[in-house]
Amino acid sequence: MNFEYGGTAFEREAGALAQELRFSISGGQVDVKHRYDMAVLIRSERGNCSGVFISPQLVLTAAHCVCAPADPKILTRIVDSSACARSVVVVTNFQTMGSVRDGAPDEHNGEVRVHPRFRAEMEDGRLKSNIADLAVVGLEKPIKGLKIDFKLPEQEVSIDEQLTVVGLGAAQYGGKGDGVRRVGYNSVTDIVLSSGGTGAFLFRSPGAHTQAGDSGGPCFRENSEGRWLVGINSGHANSGRVSWFTSTFHYRTWIAEQLRAGGVD
Fold first, then answer.
1. What is the separation, in whole angstroms, between the first and last Cα of the chain?
2. Domain CATH number, residue 119
3. Is residue 5 in some structural domain?
4. pTM of the predicted model, to two decimals?
């Protein structure tokens, strides 16, 4: 799920981008070698989203994926943790185009826990703003053989830093085709982390952007020293020409609490 952002705070420069450019994670590449198996599809009564395993039994995603109205035309102004889905289905082991993996997808039931400070403001069915846009899904049983090949960050992202985004949403703005894991790259252009800020960072640059169904998907810092989960996709704006992410470093204390509650130190 990925609502079109209706506000102006994240849009000032986006209109200057070339209209003919296609922005989507499909602008990168399909994950045919399954380098990002920890990124998964989440199905709920609110629609389809993406998520990422942070332990064999715990998936991190965006709260608005499981809390926003199932019908975006419903004129709900404030959305919080009081009206969220209680459970969702996490889909793993799916086959992508050109994949080297065979077999039917596996579905796992999970219980939802939303960040207590989550708030989203909507207007005319459009997402205007959000804060603490994080939720975890605790599965009934851990996934055997799942490798968590990344760490949580020890520092915040920086302006102009190139990051990797992963999602299972549509191939382009207004399109279909969710359920295929795609990978792309873009650079940070804005950081909103100061006191009173939303704990978010944005992409406005040409490159990979997120589309419907990519919400909740991971954003990684990758280099020769390893891979770090630095953000969770919180939405897109201007028909997919701006993408923004909730910083995992900003909310690292809550994420660590969820891991401890799940028996992970």
1. 31
2. 2.40.10.120
3. no
4. 0.82
Let me know if residue 73 belongs to a domain. Answer: yes
Task: Please count the residues of the chain.
Answer: 265
The pLDDT tens digits for 80-97 are 878 788 899 998 875 554
For the chain, state the CA radius of gyration.
17
56 domain residue, yes or no? yes
Q: Give the pair of three-digit tokens for residue 216.
A: 């909740």
What is the residue range of 69's domain? 14-261
How do strand 182-192 and strand 126-131 relate by DSSP bridges?
Answer: unpaired
Cα 112–Cα 54–Cα 126 angle in degrees, nearest 5: 50
Q: Tell whether 70 is covered by a domain.
A: yes
Is a pLDDT exceeding 80 seen at residue 185?
A: yes
Beta carbons within 8 Å of 247's beta carbon, 6+ residues apart: 156, 157, 193, 199, 200, 201, 230, 231
pLDDT digits (tens, 9 = 90+) for 168-177: 875 554 445 5
Mean pLDDT value across residues 255-262: 92
Report the side by side order of strands in the sheet with 119-123: 78-80, 119-123, 126-131
